[in-house]
Amino acid sequence: MKAKYYKSWHLAEDESSFKVTEFEWTMIRFYEAFSRCVITMGGLTIDADLKYSEHLILHVIRMQDRPKSSATIARMINRDDIPNIQYSLRKLEAKGLIEKVQENGAKTFAYKVTDKGEQTTDEYAAVRQEVLLEPMATLGNFDASIAKVTQLLGVMTGIYEEAARNSATFSKDEIGEE
User: Fold this and answer.
1) CB–CB of 57/88 below 8 Å?
2) What values do phi and psi take at 68, rounded to 5?
3) Which residues pair with 113 in a beta bridge?
4) How far apart, in Å, are the Cα atoms of 34 and each of 4, 40, 59?
5) Using DSSP, how many helices (H) and how many strands (E) does the chain show?
6) CB 18: neighbour CB atoms within 10 A?
7) How far apart are CA 73 and CA 143, in angstroms?
8) What is the pLDDT of residues 112-137, one digit of tens each?
9) Given 42, 59, 77, 162, which is the most exposed site by the fewest CB atoms within 10 A?
10) What whole-number distance in Å separates Cα of residue 111 and Cα of residue 102?
11) What gap in Å lies between CA 82 and CA 89, rounded to an integer?
């Protein structure tokens, strides 16, 4: 892209920073579209007011059909806000979608889906297959493309995590000093 298009943008001072910024804005738009899709597809399968993160947590618990602790759930979805996850778990439990189970005689609990939760996630999978996966299957070379994008996003996640760790070591007073 020509410099005149990004020259005055504070996040894009050259071609490379413009491409990174475009990537970031695309990820923001993708996240919003993805979360909206999850909520609307989920709304077709359950008569409950669930937020995006609650739908996501429900599917994570169902993953591999074994109970998961709040710490495991947080790790799997790359979150560190355990109190918010615990709030979502209480909400899912109150809706009858999950239940607490004690972990192998320990004092800690894990969560598993109930029959209602299993039925809900099965219905979601069917809706997802019809309205999302079938249209995607019409795209040429989709499996190879999505595998490359997934790999790239995994690497980029690591880079952003490293940037977050590094920036956490700075103070506001240090920014701009040389």
Assistant:
1) yes
2) -135, 145
3) 98
4) 32, 10, 15
5) 8, 2
6) 18
7) 27
8) 999 999 999 999 999 999 999 999 98
9) 162
10) 9
11) 10
